[in-house]
Amino acid sequence: MRPFLIVGNLKMNLLTRSECEKYLALLRKEMTGKRFPSVKGILCPPTIHLTRFTHLPEGWSLGAQDTAPERSGAFTGETSPLMLKDAGVGAVIVGHSERRQYSAETDELISRKVHILLKHLITPVLCIGETAEERRREATTDVLEQQLGAVFQDLSPMQAEKITLAYEPRWAIGTDVLPTTEEILQVKVFFRKFFTTRYDARLAERMEILYGGSVTAPTLGAVSWEADMNGVLVGRDSLFPHALVKMMELAEAAKARTAH
Ligand code: PGA
Is 55 a catalytic residue? Predict the structure, then answer.
């Protein structure tokens, strides 16, 4: 059975070495004596802190929040995917709405980032989602189709299924406003259609798809397993190790229920 995935996006928080150390100490304490064999955690700290997060508790691996679309060279301020890999990173968030919004990232740039990550055997966690205005216009599936099309247009089935997709409605990020389970299920139906048409039903079934946007422990079930999602991407609440570990406990219990 595929593990339930919890990706913690720490964003631009934990400003000092000592804050990182405190965070890690808390995470270790929360994880002490606990094992969640059906759950996998990926923690994505700010790039400059990556090497401070190499010794994570069992069940956790290291992710990053962004990558350069190039391998090396004259790209001031950028971080190569090979540097990330060397720091122990196995997955990278790409196309987060904050990068689309504040750094004007285009679908074309996001597609290049996905390609270079796949080339270097790093898992892209590709974020897509509609704005509140697009939702009001009932343009959600058109927007998702456009964002997906830009990335998947020239990917082989083997490449496609290495991507982890994160459905993050922009209006749900940082707002405490959540879509209903039903709304997420509708999006899931759209994803299944998209991947079946572009590839086949088997691949559509195998795609790993997460939900992201205002996820907390109390809302976890309604936006993930009840909505046929394979995991979650967590922003604010990932700053609290006890909240992340609580989510792991809940997901492990849910997995155990479906196994019986
Ligand atoms: P949030 O962020 O959990 O704070 O809403 C989610 C995200 O940005 O992925």
Answer: no
